[in-house]
Design brief:
This protein has 124 residues and is mainly α. It has helices spanning 15-30, 37-61, 66-89, 96-122. It has four helices and no strands.
């Protein structure tokens, strides 16, 4: 939230919407990186991990118990951390815009990790 109490433009605070946007942004970013053997393989891992962040959060919201909720939230946090790893491993070549976009996605993955960490602390 900003000082005015309003959500800044472009920032979503609903975790389901935010994780969906993260997965979409990752997919758009991957279209801009060089198509090397390593990037193709790392990109596949990144696509899986980035999509799993939100999918597991949706599962957490449908959990049948507190224990199940916590497990799914932990998996979401783990997948956000894994997404950050794959993002950092990708070769963006010499395109400064791709490097900037990767850094924004790394920051978002870190923020998602922190959000899920906070959710987990609140459910202890």
């Amino acid at each position: 939230m900003s000082a005015t109490g309003k959500t800044p433009p472009g920032k979503t605070y609903d975790p389901e919407d935010r994780t969906l946007q993260f997965a979409r942004d990752v997919r758009a970013f991957l279209r801009s990186v060089p198509r090397t053997v390593a990037n193709i393989e790392d990109g596949k891992q990144l696509i899986r991990a980035s999509g799993s962040v939100g999918a597991n959060y949706i599962e957490a919201n449908e959990a049948l118990s507190k224990k199940d909720f916590r497990l799914r939230a932990k998996i979401s946090r783990k997948e956000a951390k894994e997404s950050r790893y794959w993002l950092r491993l990708l070769d963006v070549g010499r395109d400064p815009r791709a490097g900037e976009q990767r850094q924004k996605l790394v920051v978002e993955a870190t923020e998602l990790m922190n959000i899920f960490g906070a959710i987990l602390r609140k459910t202890e």
